[in-house]
Structures are given as structure tokens and as C-alpha cells.
Amino acid sequence: MAENPNDREPVVGTGVKAPPDLDLARIRRLIDELDAEVANAPGDAAGVQDLKDEITTLRAVLDAPKPKSGWIAEGLHSIGVQLEQSAKSVRGEVLREGAFVAEIARILGL
Questions:
Q1: d(CA 1, CA 4)
Q2: Which has more pLDDT, 35 or 109?
């Protein structure tokens, strides 16, 4: 049966709806990879600390006893936006920001 996109849980303030079957292992791997790359970025580059904070927040949501898909999707969306906004200042440091943004979009079904 085809998924009805209107049945997805809305993500607060983003206009994005969380897919009902988020792959938490896939999201954890993505966040681990991103965290490793961001760790190499200069701390004074614009947006790097905000990106690190978003990663930390999403990890806390993922580690909750009952992770909420809407919160996870919102965290992924925020990280994607932060990556796009800080890409110029961290270019060459976070080499695969486009790949991360694309993977976030796939996970969210965008």
C-alpha cells in the first residue's frame, strides 16, 4: 500500500513531515560521519559551533528511551539548513556537505 504523505507527523516549524519509518541506525551513522568531519573544521568558522550543537541535540533525541520521529526529522532538517548556511565558511573542511544534505533529504523523503 502506498504511503499517504498526509499521514506523516508534522515537523514543528519546518513544513516538513517525518516519514513514519525513520531508520534510526542510518541516521546515527550519518550523524557519526558528519560529526567526524565537523570535528576537523576550525572552531571559529561561521556556523561550525551551531552545527556541532545541532549534532549534539540530535544525538540526545536519538538516545531518548522513546525517540520521537518528528523531533528527529526536525533535528535532521536543522542540520541540513545549518550545513547549507555554513558551507561557504567550512568549504574544504567539511568536504562532503552536499552529500550530507542529500542524505538528509533522502531520509526525510524530500
A1: 9
A2: 35
Amino acid at residue number 20: P
Average pLDDT of the residues in 26-47: 82
Q: Tell me the C-alpha distance between 18 and 47, whole Å.
A: 25
Contact call for residues 80 and 105 (beta carbons, < 8 A): yes
Q: What are the two backbone dihedrals, phi and then psi, of residue 10, each rounded to the nearest 5 degrees?
A: -70, 145
CA–CA distance, 82 with 74 (Å, rounded to integer): 12
Give domain limits for the chain: 33-108
- Alpha-carbon distances of 91 from 33, 47, 53, 77, rounded to whole Å: 16, 12, 19, 20
